[in-house]
Amino acid sequence: MLGTFAHHTVVNEASCIKIEKDVPLDKACLLGCGVVTGWGSAVYAADVSPGDTVVVVGIGGIGANAVQGAKLAGAKRVVAIDPVEFKREKAMEFGATHTAASMAEALPLLQDITWGTMANKVIMTMGVGDGQVMGEALALAAKRGRVVVTNIHPAFETGGANISLLDLTLMEKQVVGSLFGSGNPRADIPKLLGLYREGQLDLDGLVTKTYPLEGINEGYKDMRDGKNIRGVLVYE
Ligand SMILES: NC(=O)c1ccc[n+]([C@@H]2O[C@H](COP(=O)([O-])OP(=O)(O)OC[C@H]3O[C@@H](n4cnc5c(N)ncnc54)[C@H](O)[C@@H]3O)[C@@H](O)[C@H]2O)c1
């Protein structure tokens, strides 16, 4: 029930969160979805604990914040996976300790750095969810590890999820879904803006490029070409 790409919009008061005047709106806008979803996927849905090894698959607006959330929750290692080199470089700035270009590449890396125990948490934040890669995701998870499915799968995906249910049972693994980072906008948006104010959450680094309204098509093209963590429309 929101209107976007407009100077003004009418919204239900239930959809409004007060933003304090010292927070720039071109950064606060990131908390409308991506930041809370990614951060909460790590902190709430994955329930990352100090010392965990965490994998984040897909370093866009959501995944970059899952990396930040995992780091702030005390993860010992954060392995960021993305086929785009620029995204992997940005992941290291947000707190990743290792990167890989694919889950196949991450498997031997995790076996090596965890001495075979694998990741406590695997957070799926790819551009489009794909049931056929869920087996690979589960294989990255440790015994009693948890795979969080935050990325959205096509509504008419027909192949289901390609996972070993034997592995699920014998290794007591978990697969859980998460919407808006399993967070609460009224509490979490002010909380995360507070972390930004204190320098514990990087919002500035998330904005790769800003565009005027007339540049919206360029913004969409850059998004599709994988050039931005986030592109922000700034209205004069
Ligand atoms: N659950 C929720 O509440 C919620 C909320 C918002 C968005 N989403 C979903 O989260 C997902 C991510 O959104 P976003 O805005 O960060 O997208 P994005 O386009 O900014 O980033 C997606 C990233 O995934 C990478 N990627 C693509 N295929 C990959 C693969 N096979 N392995 C590893 N990385 C891969 C891309 O290179 C890109 O960097 C989308 O599916 C989106 O619909 C879910």
UniProtKB/TrEMBL annotation:
Instruction: Quote any Pfam family the record assigns.
Output: ADH_zinc_N
Q: Which GO terms describe its molecular function?
A: S-(hydroxymethyl)glutathione dehydrogenase [NAD(P)+] activity; zinc ion binding
Q: Which InterPro entries match?
A: ADH-like_C, GroES-like_sf, NAD(P)-bd_dom_sf
Question: Keywords in UniProt for this one?
Answer: Metal-binding, NAD, Zinc
Any GO BP: formaldehyde catabolic process
What range(s) does the Alcohol dehydrogenase-like C-terminal domain occupy? 61-195
GO CC terms in record: cytosol
Signal sequence bounds: none
- PANTHER family membership: ALCOHOL DEHYDROGENASE (PTHR43880), ALCOHOL DEHYDROGENASE CLASS-3 (PTHR43880:SF12)
Protein name in the entry? Unannotated protein
Species assigned in the record = freshwater metagenome
